[in-house]
Write a structure and sequence with these properties.
The chain is an alpha/beta fold. About 50% of the residues lie in helices and about 15% in strands. It contains 4 helices and 3 strands. Strands 1-2-3 form a 3-stranded parallel sheet, covered by helices on one side. α2 packs parallel to α3 and α3 runs parallel beside α4. It starts with a helix and ends with a helix. The mean pLDDT is about 95.
């Protein structure tokens, strides 16, 4: 909600989403439906409880890849924010598709 309010005043502002958070898939869907296309995707560093966040590094990576694929398919402009070499490679593969 805060992002939407700020975006009304400053339309070029973007948002950062974390693949660690379980809610991010839903957030991506809402943002794509609203036509908001400036998104930066990162793994996330904050240690949240398992109820709201993935704790397995492999699940976080898989979610990152799935979210990136969904964002790209939805026409979003995505900033890929990671130093994780596996994810950089996976992102390059998705972009080549």
């Amino acid at each position: 909600a805060l992002y939407r309010r700020v975006r009304q005043r400053f339309p070029n502002v973007g948002v950062v989403l974390q693949s660690r958070l379980r809610r991010t898939k839903h957030d991506v869907q809402l943002l794509l439906e609203e036509g908001i296309a400036h998104i930066r995707l990162c793994k996330g560093i904050y240690l949240e409880p398992r109820a709201i966040a993935y704790t397995s590094p492999e699940l976080i990576r898989k979610n990152f890849e799935a979210l990136l694929e969904h964002l790209l398919a939805g026409g979003a402009s995505v900033g890929i924010a990671t130093h994780d070499e596996q994810l950089v490679w996976a992102a390059e593969q998705l972009l080549e598709k």
